[in-house]
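Structure record:
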Amino acid sequence: MDSIYLDNAATTPVLPEVVDKMKEVLSASFGNPSSIHSQGRTAKSLIENTRKSIAKELGALPSEIIFTSGGTEGDNMVLQGAVRGLGVETIITSKIEHHAVIHAVENLEQSDDINVHYVQVSSDGSPDLADLERLLQYDDSKKLVSLMHVNNELGTICDLEAIGNLCRQNDALFHSDTVQSIGHYRLNLQEIPIDFAVAAAHKFHGPKGTGFVFIRKATGLHSLFFGGGQERGLRAGTESVHNIVGLGEAFSHAYSNLDADKSQITDLKMYCIHQLKSTFSDISFNGCCDDLTKSTYTIVNARIPMSPEKANLLGFTLDLKGICCSKGSACQAGSETGSHVLNHILSKKQLQSPSVRISFSKYNTKEEVDQLVDVLNNYISA
């Protein structure tokens, strides 16, 4: 049975061109980038060329791009570094951030005795800017705001520019987990008033275990790792050259083909919403994922009423039919408490119906959407 993969918000299939490039590097460019001989210089040049190409696309300086192991490390690097190196005393975030942010902030609250404030979010998952302004002006402590660009479960897009301007006006730092948007949207990080942004290669058809952080030069963030002086002294440890080159290859493909891919996936998402609405009269959509002006083109989060017995076996049934999607965030798999995002924005009555997150890539088709809808319809009707 062929698998239908509709869980691209969790991870994406790696492009064949990326695999080929990584194999080439593993075979021929195995030198340590810190070594001064020819093999080391070759490896170093591969890293720096990747850094330059990413920086050019994002409107950043090459020195502002720091390679990491992915989104979780990047978020922790910024949050811990801001508190322990930049003197941040207060973090303002939301209850629907990725756990890489939520748990890092909770740990800092306990270990470093910082103040944590949670901005109110609307039922569609967007932060309340009036409440954010109130929190920014609450006291004179040094503050950092951490709000994600695209919510990984709802697909809701927050206004980076508006949030960044509020932060600038109130002398606060601004960090955003942009894991679900870099590779899918064009961002000019010099024009957007943002200090820190985080990316992960496996969200745009690159390898797992690699990503990068944009750290605005003027912030003065310091390293959390101690060792060699790699990555401008901000991330000690021998660089994973093949992963970084794979990231760069995936990044290049993402932006070279972004407009065509976005158009194709947008069409697919709207087709999916239409088919779901046509088949299930009582279906609802979480957040604002059925509104393309407010949500990403890659995610649909649908709530379908059914009996508790069927709801409990929904994920198992979809998997049995070869359909890969998520009842919540993939980082929540196996959790008995369900999605912390949905728990925060939905009522108790709404939570009684199971929610399915369907997330697309350019490899998906309308035929796959039809099969998903058929499986759901047959399961609920049986």
Observations:
- The CA atoms of residues 195 and 218 lie 9 Å apart.
